[in-house]
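**Protein record**
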Amino acid sequence: MIYKNYRRFLLIRLVILFGLLTVLAFSISYSNTYIAAGATILSLYFMYNLYRFTTRRFLEMDDFFESVRYRDFSRWFVEDKGPQDIRKLHVGFNEVNRTIREINSEKDAQYVYLQKILEMVDIGIFAYNINTGRVLWSNESFLRTIDSPSFKNISFVKSRKPLLYNDVFEVNHSGNSSTILDVKSEKLKVLISETTFRVQEDSFRLLVLHNIEETLNQNESEAWKKLLSVMTHEIMNSIAPISSLADTLQTQIKAAANDPETNLLELDDLDAGIASIKKRSEGLMKFAKTYRSLNKVTHLNLEKVKVADLFKNLHNLMQPGLKVKDVHLEFKVENTDLEINIDAYLIEQVLINLLLNAIDAVKNVEQGRIMVSAKQNVNGNAIIRVQDNGKGIPSEIIDSIFIPFFTTKKNGSGIGLSLSKEIMMLHKGKIQVNSEAEKGTIVSLSF
């Protein structure tokens, strides 16, 4: 639009000037002095006007480009004075300046935002000019790790800590390299990586320094806490039924000793109870030894086990504690000769975990029932199910129940189901959960 106005006004001036020059030529040829003089004056005026009209636009543009050259985008060009095309030109200049100011403002905001992020991260970040050593960027974590105040050139470190300077700035850290730094008269283990980049004609080196000494100590501490949590959870799960069964047997023995005629002592029940305690104690010892030797965690002592015998031992362990809780526990095997190739102690641990979860689910249910059943599917694979009529598992958390340390129980550890899944995976089997709110839960172990 500006160009069209400029072209129109320029064309008008050229036409007028051409007409005046034509009149001047005819007046000279006809020796008309007055007309020639008038045409000459008007021609000179329009030549000057054409010159001013042309150069003024170029001077305005030259003035704008000069401000761009010196990055002066704060200037404001007058939009309400002068010729119409000059006003429109000024409007365009102001729009360009405003756009560039907005871009610079966004750029500055992004820089401040990035600067704050880099300051908050717990990893040292440092960039400097390879040729001059001038520092382009460094965050507080980097300075804290090398125990140094802020500096503008890496020569500062070279003059005060030459060994540190050599380890950090002179050694090539292609990839990730682990390095021991002498900081505060201590050996500090750090991980350093680097890359180079160019900005216009300058080359820069970016260093990323991670203090892994603190991370290793923290991870080791967390690992021990989790291991102790697992051990405590599983040991308590095994001790609870053993203690309950031992208490029941002790009560029976005392009653028989005080009044042998009324309270006959069933030696078979006593033998079965002691055998259950002995077997579970052996399983507990094996479990503890497994976690004491972590390199054997994937080792299984597989043997053919009758499911009926496995269920009988579980019944002897769990039933005494359920009598006082008014929970009915039932074991059912379709084929009494059904055998599975398992590590009996570990699978027994899984079933104890599932039974304790089921007991917890039915504790506030009238006539709480738990059914443990076993059968073979059409493919000949054994399936053991633990079913209860408890409160069920909410649909929003059922996908999270196998995540280690996830729990909804006030005093839970979140270990039982994740460990059960790990044990089933070691047996090349799987564990599946189907649950419906207020109707109950079915947990299936497929071998």
About this structure: The domain at 217-446 is CATH 3.30.565.10 (Heat Shock Protein 90). The longest helix spans residues 212-258. Residues 304 and 341 are 5 Å apart (CA to CA). DSSP finds eleven helices and twelve strands in the chain.
